[in-house]
Design a protein that fits this description.
Layout (H helix, E strand, L loop, with lengths): L2 E8 L3 H12 L4 E5 L12 H6 L1 H20 L14 H26 L2 E4 L2 E7 L2 E6 L2 E10 L3 E3 L12 E2 L1 H4 L8 E5 L3 H12 L3 E5 L11 H14 L2 E3 L3 E8 L2 E7 L5 E6 L1 E4 L3 E3 L6 H4 L22 E3 L10 H15 L13 E3 L4 E6 L2 H7 L3 E7 L4 H6 L5 E7 L5 E8 L2 H13 L4 H5 L9 H11 L7
Parallel strand pairs: 1-2, 1-6, 2-3, 6-17, 8-15, 9-10, 9-15, 10-11
Antiparallel strand pairs: 4-5, 5-6, 7-16, 12-13, 13-14, 18-19, 19-22, 20-21, 21-22
This protein binds flavin-adenine dinucleotide (FAD) and 1,4-dihydronicotinamide adenine dinucleotide.
């Protein structure tokens, strides 16, 4: 006997579980299917984000930041420490606890919102009268509407599979049992910089090999330069413009042959190698072919601007479709789709999706970069304010970086805000709100900001657009 639902969501990551909750809130009889297993084989909803992404990486970034402060900054505050050590096993256990709290939280939210949860792999079977038949673990569900939110997997280098012992994806990178002496990373993107920072702080000698000649090409150039300077000063070795050649992995370590930017043959010998060269959309086991679900050449499910696939009543959201691979983008799409199914006008504004890289200093931005505005030939004004001139940053002892505003030359509308520095991840929210409401730089400059706070740097950068900073 089949079980009937108004909405079946396949995938319980941020796109799927949030979409399912919103659908249930809107009165739909909703199910969510997720196959992720915890160590004991039980359900672990939350997807990549909760299990091997956002949450565990931030837990380790926090632990390693505490360690770094204890090792390098406590003395400035007059705090003495003897015999500082790191218990990696305990750090990993804490990270696992944080992950489990999130898994359990999602199961609780499903109950609270009356979402029926199925633990297993969901696959399309066929179109049926008024919907779709979905198989999961020996059961058959019939759904009027289906939301596919099956996420993404780490991309491997051709011929170099992840063994998660010496050649690591994000999964293995979050489970390294002892601080490696030498750690190599391929790709200086978001994962490379975050995971590289974790293990460098704990004492690893870290080398990052990046194919592109520019560092963080998607980031505003001025901000990327400032970040590069800070990371290099911390001891992260970043080689740009390399061509990775043969990789030989053995039990004891990995050797990476590569050509450097000048064309010289080089070899990197490391204990562990993290390959972080992007992610690929995941439709494994979905049986997409059998029902004719259209994929593009990258394997992403093809959707229109509103996340409709080529199949009637089938939607797709998150990492498995086009657009940035970010948890909050997936969530916004999940909510918008549920609202569209209810006949409402769900909307995701791609211009105001914030990006954050949780390194130290943190990097965060929203909207256009200066190089994008130049390429578009748009007349703009720029204003920036260094944390060096911010009282709270000085008190924190963290004065690296700046806030930078880009505004339309004629209307003063904010076109982009870029931050490198302390708590950039939190500060960016004000800029997102401002841009969502199409505020001008003057609007922010005229708002009262608490003193002393890092947010005053945001106000001052807005003032800088009109060349009238008060504290610099
Ligand atoms: P996923 O989270 O990948 O979830 C998909 C779920 O579907 C998984 O549980 C999977 O098991 C399940 N599934 C797949 N196929 C089936 C099937 N057929 N049947 C049943 N279940 C299925 N983003 C941020 O915004 N901020 C961050 O700080 C951040 N940090 C990250 C750190 C790392 C190391 C990584 C790897 C990623 C990070 N991301 C971050 C990206 C973020 O994790 C993804 O953008 C987000 O998880 C995408 O959500 P999703 O719901 O589309 O897919
Ligand atoms: P990425 O796309 O951020 O970076 C990949 C980097 O690898 C690029 O700089 C690319 O030029 C480089 N590269 C590609 N092929 C290469 C090769 N053969 N040799 C050397 N370099 C090569 O991808 P990453 O870091 O794997 O992360 C995947 C995605 O996960 C991110 O794009 C992001 O969407 C998400 N994520 C988000 C985080 C956040 O929001 N804080 C944290 C971590 C991941």
């Amino acid at each position: 006997m089949s079980k009937n639902f108004d909405v079946v969501v396949i995938g319980g990551g941020p796109g799927g579980y949030i979409g399912a909750i919103r659908a249930a809130q809107l009165g739909f009889n909703t199910a969510c299917i997720d196959e992720w297993k915890n160590e004991k084989g039980g359900p672990a909803p939350g997807g990549t984000c909760t299990n091997v992404g956002c949450i565990p990486s931030k837990a380790l970034l926090q632990s390693s930041e505490h360690y770094e402060h204890a090792a390098h900054s406590f003395a400035d505050h007059g705090i003495g420490l003897k015999d500082l050590s790191i218990d990696v096993k305990k750090m990993l256990a804490r990270k696992d606890t944080v992950v489990k709290q999130n898994n359990d939280g999602i199961l609780y939210l499903f109950k609270k919102n009356k979402v029926t949860f199925f633990h297993g792999r969901g696959s399309f079977v066929k179109a049926v009268d008024g919907g779709w038949e979905i198989a999961v673990g020996g059961e058959t569900l019939v759904a009027k509407q289906v939301i596919v939110a099956t996420g993404s997997n780490a991309r491997a280098l051709p011929g170099v599979p992840f063994d998660e012992e010496t050649v690591l994806s994000n999964d293995g990178a979050l489970r390294v049992g002892a601080v490696p002496k030498k750690l190599g990373l391929i790709g200086s993107g978001v994962i490379g910089l975050e995971m590289g920072s974790v293990w460098r702080r704990l004492g690893a000698q870290v080398t990052v090999l990046e194919a592109l000649p520019t560092f963080l090409g998607a980031v505003d150039e001025q901000i990327a330069k400032e970040a590069h300077k800070a990371f290099t000063k911390q001891g992260l070795k970043i080689e740009l413009g390399v061509k990775v050649g043969e990789i030989k992995a053995a039990k004891g370590g990995v050797s990476v042959a590569y050509t450097d930017a000048k064309g010289g043959a080089q070899k990197l010998e490391v204990d562990k190698l993290i390959v972080s060269i992007g992610r690929v959309p995941n439709t494994n086991g979905l049986n997409a072919d059998a029902v004719g679900l259209k994929l593009d050449e990258r394997g992403a499910i093809v959707v229109d601007d509103e996340c409709r696939t080529n199949l009637p009543g089938v939607w797709a959201v998150g990492d498995v479709v086009r657009g940035p691979m970010l948890a909050h983008k997936a969530e916004e799409e999940g909510v918008a789709v549920a609202e569209r199914i209810a006949g409402q006008h769900g909307h995701v504004n791609f211009n105001t999706i914030p990006w954050v890289i949780y390194t130290s200093p943190e990097i965060a931005w929203v909207g256009k970069t200066e190089q994008q505005l130049k390429a578009e030939g748009r007349a703009y004004k720029a204003g920036s304010f260094p944390f060096m001139a911010n009282g709270r940053a000085r008190a924190l002892g963290d004065t690296t970086g700046m806030v930078k505003f880009l505004a339309d030359a004629a209307t003063d509308e904010i076109l982009g805000v870029h931050i490198v520095g302390p708590m950039a991840s939190e500060l960016i929210a004000e800029a997102v709100v401002a841009m969502e409401f199409r505020a001008s730089a003057e609007d922010i400059a005229r708002i009262c900001h608490a003193h002393p706070s890092l947010s005053e740097a945001t106000k001052e950068a807005a003032l800088a657009v009109d060349k009238r900073t008060l504290n610099f």
